[in-house]
Amino acid sequence: MPVLDLPFYSDTAAHASDVRDALGGLRIRAVSRTEEAASAWDRLRGCAAVPFSDPVWARAWYAAHRDAPNVSPLIVVGEAANGEPLFLLPLMQERRGPFTVLVWPGGTHSTYHCGLFSPACRALVTAETAQAFWARVFAALPPADALALYGLPAFEVAQRNPLAHLPLFQCGCTSYRMALTPDWEALYASKAHAKMRRNDRRCERHLAKLGTLAFRVARTREERRHMLDCLIAQKSARLEQLGLPNFFDKPHVRSFYEHLIDHGDRDGPNAVMLCALALDEEIIAVNLGMRQGTSYHGMVVSMTDGAAERYGPGRLLLRHFVEHLSREGFETLDFGVGDEPYKDIWSDEAVARCDVLVPLRARGWVFVSALKLFLKTKAKVKQSALLWPLFSRYRRFLGC
Q: Is the dihedral of CA 237, 243, 249, 254 positive or negative?
């Protein structure tokens, strides 16, 4: 595909002998079916820094959008001369108005995206070779106007992710995470002061008067589907109250979550986790996320708007869930993006995220420039004590 002759893509470095030697054996192919990239994906799975680059995630998104208009899978695989896979980029081609844009599968439903890059690839792509490397990658892609890859975390930039050599845009959404320890009682005492702990006990006593309160982790397909249905109903009601668009109204999104929970544990136990707080047989709060090793990445949480709401079922579920993760040997809990108050209480670290926004053709400059303007404006509105409450009040009518 044609690539603009920009300073970033300058071929000055590409003609240096060391760069030619380093990249000379690099082979790049772009495919549309996961089966064509299965071998490379399996061999690179250990290089996935987050679960959103795992084939479990991408396959669910691809399957859910199989018949969706204006979108199609695009998986980019890079290999060394000896056939050893060096990197894999699971992407989607999306038609946005007059533009064709390359994005991550899952988009804003994930917290981070990093691609999969082997240690050899990270060592290969340096400040001196990055221009030539990415020019080679872009030249192997089918025609597209721009690259819009959201959610590259700061810890991957520090680990020499080759995407960090592309033009980055600092996004306004920060993620939050906390370190877990096996000593739950000490952890709880360090995070929640005595008054908060007393309030938790008081709320549990009140709920116990309404029925039997129980923390549950979904173990079977039926339990997972039931919890997901409850989560969707609760989340949809909450979004309606806030005047926000309900992403579950999109059939492809709901299908994605169904694919994810049905197949998310086929390659390992609890790759996708669902847990809930139940009052007798009624689910009053749900938490859905993905496990990777000893880390848990939260995705969607919900709670009832019924009689139990006044006793903070979402807060109580979080306490039980953190206890469960702690006792099960998890080491990190990533809460995802958002500035909810409970994250100030529980989290230890704020993780900056940035977006990779690259025009690939002249018309792509129009798309990227407009996107940057929109993101900057949105960030300023969110930071304004005057504008954000007004926007929040009327966003139901604005539809955004």
A: negative
